[in-house]
Please model this.
Amino acid sequence: MKKIVVLGSINVDTILNIARLPLPGETMAMHDRSVAGGGKGANQAIAAVRAGAQTSFISKIGKDHAADFMIDTFKHDGLNIEHVTEDEKAGTGKAYILLDDKGQNSILIYGGSNQTITVDDIHEAEEAISSADCVISEFETPIPATIEMFKIAKAHGVVTILNPAPAKSDIPSELLENTDIIAPNEIEAEAITGIKVNDVDSMKAASAELHKMGVGTVIITVGSKGSFYSLVDNKFGFVNAFKVKAVDTTAAGDTFIGYLAANLKSDLSNLEEAMTVASKASSFTVQEQGAQNSIPYKKQVNL
Ligand code: RIB
Model:
């Protein structure tokens, strides 16, 4: 069984269903309001475990009811939470998701305990990291911890996957040099490279920049269109998305990452095949509202 370690955030998501985004100074009624488990790291870890991988999660929760809610989900899915620890002061992370009638979302984040993860927490998980097949991280937790995890992983021949989300422009070179696969969407790719990504030529140009920064494999996800990949030896390809009616795209990218990692061989030789499975899994996530509750199980994806 594939062994994966995810370092990342835990958020309780509050979804506010609205007709459209309010204008400045406007008061608006919402159609509905609901709560679901979320956080990019937790979503990716849940996706990996539901894809059939043995998955350990490194994260931090607060001492509150939100933490109990999230821990129940993790236990139910069989996620290894030995390295999910408690912060004494900060509250568990929260996200407030404005979801409009067209399925478009805008997200506000309260980092809370996610922001208290340290390099020492990574050292506590050193054994899990060094014995994994693959590690994953994103940008909702402090970057020094991610750099430390990727350095340990690389020293032990473990594949490192970076999902550079939310978008950020000033990524330390030490992180990119220790990244095997980077998987931004078009906005995140532009934030890092300065190249507006809107067609295959611009995807190739942005990928070339990322290769120059030290990353061997680039995957750019472009929502309902699909995903593009570029390898350092000048090989490119595109995997079309599965056509479905999307009601909420929250966690679609996270599902893609978790399923990709769970299906990828260590020599990355089946990249296109793993991207196809990841894309099919994401097509389930967008058909339901909410993050973790909409991430499919392996038997549903059935490819
Ligand atoms: O990627 C989706 C996630 O982003 C949501 O679950 C929300 O918590 C934010 O972190």
Observations:
- The radius of gyration is 18 Å.
- Residues 3-301 form a domain with the UDP-N-acetylmuramoyl-L-alanine:D-glutamate ligase fold (CATH 3.40.1190.20).
- The chain has a mean pLDDT of 96.
- The pocket of alpha-D-ribofuranose is lined by residues 9, 11, 13, 38-40, 43, 95, 107, 109, 140, 250-251, 253-254, 291 (CB under 6 Å).
